[in-house]
């Protein structure tokens, strides 16, 4: 009886750990998808394929700010092996990875304060989006 209870307890712990890992991976994937959606909208405005819209820019910056703050937390040591495009470099160079998120957050705050019209948007937003490319080159498996 004791062995059955111990086995059931260990199984429950294992299942809980697996679910927690999957949850963290799912949360960060959701976060990155939201960023991608906003980046497409912003990119269209930068390329003059869509009209400048300050409300959409502010919404994107709000999402980017949330990502800068919560992103590093979602790359937990136990989520290395999840179904994700995150490369091992995330955990091998964690300080560098976290520093890129911090820089992203600073650039988002600067842009949030500076962007008041289309001219300031076109001057500031590329600096924000450059952070995405820098991080993806080192810490994300290529897509496509």
TrEMBL record:
UniProt key word Thylakoid: no
A GO molecular-function annotation: heme binding
Biological process, per Gene Ontology: electron transport chain
Name of a matching Pfam family: Cytochrom_C_2
Signal peptide, first to last residue: 1-22
GO CC entries: periplasmic space
Top-rank taxon, per record: Bacteria
Protein name: Cytochrome c
Organism: Microvirga thermotolerans
């Amino acid at each position: 009886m004791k062995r059955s209870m111990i086995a059931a307890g260990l199984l429950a712990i294992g299942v809980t750990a697996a679910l927690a890992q999957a949850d963290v991976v799912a949360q960060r994937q959701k976060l990155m998808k939201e960023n991608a959606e906003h980046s497409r909208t912003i990119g269209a405005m930068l390329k003059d394929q869509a009209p400048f819209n300050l409300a959409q820019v502010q919404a994107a910056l709000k999402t980017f700010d949330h990502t800068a703050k919560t992103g590093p937390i979602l790359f937990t040591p136990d989520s290395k092996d999840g179904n994700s495009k995150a490369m091992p470099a995330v955990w091998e160079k964690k300080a560098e990875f976290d520093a890129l998120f911090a820089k992203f957050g600073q650039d988002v705050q600067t842009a949030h304060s500076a962007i008041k019209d289309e001219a300031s948007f076109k001057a500031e937003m590329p600096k924000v989006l450059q952070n995405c490319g820098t991080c993806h080159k080192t810490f994300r498996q290529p897509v496509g």
